[in-house]
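Pasting two entries for a bug report.
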Amino acid sequence: MYVVTGQQDRSFMMKREGVSHGDHLFPLKKYDVVLSESFPLVPAHWHEEAEFTWIRSGACVYHIDLCDYPVQEGDMILLPPRILHSSGFFPRDHMMSESFVFHLDFLGMGGSDVCSVKYLRPFASREIVFPYVFQADHPANPLLRDMMRQLSDEYISRGDGYELRMKALFLELFSRIWPYRLLKNPAPSSRDQSEKLKQVLDYIDAHLEDMIPVADLARICCFSESHFMRFFKLHVGMTCTEYINTLRLERAWKLLQSGQVSVIDAAFSSGFHNLSYFYRIFKKKYHMTPKEAFATVQSQ
């Protein structure tokens, strides 16, 4: 289980080289997420895996494929692979959730049997779509919550044969929601906009150590700079500069916590070429200077 509440590594939320959820034999991982004033946003991200989530308490807004979905305690969320999504909490509220991120190959999508061809592959390619959110009053919701509890129990206890039971539960999940599949795919324009944003996030991640002019990002989308900045903030929930600084700060934090690089090397390796600016925004985020963060590791 991986708990995400603030200063922990949040690389699972970005499409980054080397990030995996589980391993090739058991491509599945559980995450507990807490949104609060200190950690108000899970930034826009996507992954090759599907995602199954239970809102345990509180409320927030999921932004899925560029559309808003308010969710609250008891709601269940099922996302197909490679769909862009983020979440943010309401002011003066909080949100706690449990999520399983799992690759459909775990269920046999790579095979050529009827389950792969008729159900899993069409779900992965979004030829077949289900509601992203199964609200508390949806007829399938009680069953999905019960299945989440069983999955969590198996994942935590890891008793003999638990992998088989978890695989069976995920397959049962799809059989149970099959009657609720939707006939209409997302609008092509929405998919196009989502793909453009994915390309921008990929570019930022690949060039984090470099200067990243807004003009270069706007060019990827074929937008003007002003239109791109509005587009980015609308769909990511923060300005482009805030987003890039967040990624750079988290990379610097991780490097400093390794205890193997100096403060200067951590700054430059994270894309900060102005040390005074790096010190200022690092302290604002982590309530300590980079030197203090490094010293904390050295003293352990």
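Entry 2 (this is the one that rendered wrong in the viewer):
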Amino acid sequence: MYRLMIDPRELPTGTGVYIFRDEGGRPLYVGKARNIRNRVSQHLKSSDMKERRLCSRASSVECILTRGEMEAALLEERLIKEMTPPFNVELKDDKSYPYLLLTTHQRFPGLFLVRGFKGRQGKLFGPYSGVKDLRVALRYLRALFPVRNCWVLRRRNKPCMEAHLGRCTAPCTGKADEEEYSKNVKDLERFLSGDTAGVLKELREKMRRASEEEKFELAAYYRDVIRGIERISEGASITAPVKDFDLVEASEGGEAVYLLKVRGGRVAGAEPFFLNREGVEGCLAIETFLEEYYSRVSGMPPLILVSQ
């Protein structure tokens, strides 16, 4: 039994951020959840060694309710950067959430998991949470939509192991069908933009059959892939006359700008950008951000809303 001073059943069931603290009140871990009570209970029941160490040191849980998942994601990242809790190594060390980068500016685009957007060319999808689930889903995606995962496309005489495993069509050998490759890229781009229903339905059916046949390891694999794909496709719906737009808002002190990306009527990402400019007025902070950010990314939406 762990020594939490609060019964998890007393925690709220709403969306928000939770903070595990030790006996001295020091933050150990910051997380976000659609249902805080359920998520904290999962921590307490987990057999993972990292989770068990966290729970053995935790004495209390602080909860902050938010108006939705995107607000929770923004608050979580801000608190992690401010508090630097020791059990948030995965996010703290990498400084930002992971994205998927599709290098559409290249003749044979590749798909990569990256951190941040600085200096990137191509189309970014995200940000996402749960990088472990995302990596599992990424391996499956490459089998569904075979595109390369090598940063530099060098000429080869023989296909690499990824091609032998069916996760790439080996454009490095010069034998890949460019039209077929382009179709894979377009299908992948549509999937990453939220068209995931068909793939998830097929995966759930495969998981069900594997479980019925008592192939539990295979069923667990499909479960992890489903979880990863749900990470990719999660996002809140937004009712608006325009389906694709960005919403930009500056903090009161002008030290940060918050970007909310909506694609196809769904929230595709939300992220704070810290400008390291103290005392800057909000309007100037937004002007600086707009100039720097949109000069680096491709695929600018037809509408950019600015909240002041």
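Dev reply: Rendering is fixed now. As a check, the viewer should reflect this: Residues 216-233 form the longest helix (18 residues).
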